Amino acid sequence: MAVNIRNIAGRGCRIQRVQPPMQNTESAFRAIERWMPAYMSGMIKTFYYPWTRDEMHRRTIAVVPGCMAMYSESLYGQKDTRLTFLTVESSTVAAMDEYYSGIIERCRTMVSIYALDNQEKLLERLREIAKIQDSGIYKSSRLSSNTLPSSALSHMRTRATPFTQELLDCYSKNEHYRVEALRNNVITDIMCLPSFDDVMSGKEFVPGTKTSSHDHLFYTPSEYRLHLRHIVWYLETFPNYRAIFMDDPVQNDVVIYTKGDEHALMIKESEPYTLFEVTERGFASSLCNYLHHMASTKIRENSRQTTIDMLRREAEKVDAALAARGGR
Question: Is 244 helix (H, G, I), strand (E, B) or coil?
Answer without folding.
Answer: strand
